[in-house]
Structure formats: C-alpha cells, structure tokens
Design brief:
By secondary structure, the chain is α/β, with parallel strands linked by helices. The chain has 8 helices and 6 strands. It is globular, with a radius of gyration of 17 Å.
Length: 226
C-alpha cells in the first residue's frame, strides 16, 4: 500500500538531545562542562534509554521525565560532578531542545504533499509539547502521540499500535522514522516501513528486523515518499 502517514520519534530524531548539555557548557559559570559535556550528553541519553527498557521489561512504568532525571544523575556521577544548581540548569534546558536544522523544511514538504505527520515518543505529553513549541513545528504536525496513553515504553507493540488506531491505517501505510536502531527494529517488527536516521554513522544493529532505509539526516526523507 502507499504511504499515507509519516511518524517520527522525537528525541534524537527531530530534536537534538545533546543541545541541553552543549548549551549549558556555553553559559558563564558552567566551565566544568566545557570538556565534559559531550560525555555527559552521551551518558545521559544512554541511561535514559536503558532505564526505559528495564522499566518496560519489569512492568514498572513511570513517565519519561523521571527516567530523564535519573539518567542525568548517573551521567553527572560518572563525571564526578555534584552540583545541584548545574543539575537544574541541564534539566531546565531539556525543556527547550532545538530541532535539527532540516526538520522544519522536511515536515513542510511532507505536509505540502498531503501526508499526515505525527510524533510517536516515549516522552510525556508535557515534555513533548514543550519541545514542539520550542522548535516551532507544531503547525507541521497532525498529532503528538505519547506512550503515556498505554503506560509502557517502546518497543512494546502497543506503542506502535497508537499510530494505526489514531490514523485508521494499516501498518504498511506508515513510514516510521527514528534515530534509534532499536526503535526502527521495533517498528519494522510491527509492520511499519522504517527509516533509521543514522547521524553518527553507527553499524546496523544485529537484529532480525532491520529498517528499509538508512539516512544520514532527514533532508532527503521526502524523496522516499513519492
């Protein structure tokens, strides 16, 4: 079937998750981050994701803001930083993430072609709304779907099912886009056509379900939907 709906993961796909640590490092008084912010950003993101997987497996759901705070605490501890003020600065900046430079133009192209567009994210509704507002892309999205509707994190199939229920479509009418290889694998297992946005040039995950498309960024994504 033809693709009718393009659905995007949020963090790391549309929104730059390293932006909070990078911005904090540039602010006066945060010199301790000048050399450490890349490692903190990487550890923060990794632990944030690992905690979602563990909670999903153990059926101990919480909202994404909790695992975001928990992940940051681990990352700061790994960097030997104990500073409540700096912790709050980083958390505040996470609510103001910027979109990657190509995102707005890419979404507008999809909308101009008559495609539905949406976010499907582990993020809680208030976090996602803040990111959408900060990035000024709200008018380019038909919906923002959160795992809070089903109370479990990706890659649980119930999360991907939110898309087919909301847009009344078959899985093979959806193009699902994520910067996370495991998320693309989960979506492929569900039956979506998938795109892995591999900004870091990482190797493909060794899983039975692989994305049909791999892109370095989102610039050329509209060319996949013709």
């Amino acid at each position: 079937m033809a693709i009718k709906t393009c659905v995007f993961d949020a963090y790391g796909t549309l929104f730059d998750v390293a932006a909070a640590a990078r911005e904090a490092a540039s602010q006066p008084g945060n010199e301790i981050l000048q050399d450490t912010w890349p490692a903190i950003a990487q550890d923060w993101r990794l632990k944030q994701l690992q905690y979602t997987w563990l909670r999903a497996v153990m059926q101990e759901h919480c909202d994404f803001w909790q695992v975001t705070q928990d992940g940051l605490d681990w990352a700061l501890a790994a960097a030997n930083i104990s500073d409540a003020r700096l912790r709050q600065v980083l958390l505040d900046l996470y609510w103001e993430l910027s979109a990657y430079p190509e995102v707005a133009a890419m979404l507008k192209t999809l909308k101009d072609r008559g495609l539905a567009t949406a976010i499907l994210s582990n993020g809680s509704p208030d976090m996602l709304q803040a990111a959408v507002t900060s990035a000024q892309v709200g008018d380019l999205l038909d919906d923002v779907l959160s795992v809070e509707s089903v109370g479990v994190f990706k890659p649980d199939a119930r999360v991907y099912g939110l898309v087919t229920s909301r847009f009344d479509c078959a899985p093979d009418q959806v193009l699902f886009v994520s910067s996370n290889g495991w998320d693309a694998a989960g979506a492929a297992h569900f039956g979506f056509e998938t795109v892995w946005v591999n900004r870091a040039g990482d190797p493909m995950d060794t899983l039975p379900w692989t994305p049909q498309h791999v892109l370095a960024d989102l610039t050329d994504l509209p060319g996949l939907v013709v």
